[in-house]
Task: structure prediction
Amino acid sequence: MMYDPNSDSNQSRALKELVAENDRPREKAKHQGFSALTTAELIAIIVGSGSVGESVVELCQRILRENDDKLYRVARLTINDLVKNYRGIGEVKATEILAALELGRRYHLEKFDDSKQITSSYDAYEYLRLRLEHLTHEEMHVLLLDRSKRILHHERVSSGGTAMTVADVKMILKPAIERLADGIILAHNHPGDTPRPSGIDDALTHSVKQACKVMGIGFVDHIIVCRGGRYYSYTDNE
Result:
């Protein structure tokens, strides 16, 4: 039987093959742009191939689904987590996925100029969230401000476990004194995503505020950073 490219059956098969081709993430990106791809399809481009019985897109859909369809939850996984829980993901692919997510985070960090003026607690949260919300452990950071409340410097002063980090008042004020800052914003994250401050948070805030008063440094705020737009501002809740 001769192949007739104009026959209805062959045209139908060719159309199906074309649709399937254009439905592949790389081809879809080439013809429609990356913005047309779903999150799973974007990850699939990095992963490259699936496993027996599961396409690469299906694999990436499952990874997202099992992490509440949230990239920040995927970013919190380790290389071993990905390799152990997802057939078809080896160490190299796991490394590439997490590296891509870290690149995305750093891209967003570049959008915030360090000379940004802090006019509200939300400004401070927006600056801090990309630096703190992805962490699985607590960290204490301090923003140093000039008289116009523009950011002079940002520094991590301590790093701790999943429940708390210990910060010394002297460690917090040291960079502010060295850089002659006019004001500071203290900040730390709650990996459990509960913005409510603890008694330790309250005590530290009081101590730092008193020390700032003695040193002639303005205590602007203490921000507790969580994900999903949630944060706690001591100044807002005074």
Q: What stands out?
A: The longest helix spans residues 91-110. The mean pLDDT is 85. The two ends are 85 Å apart (CA to CA).
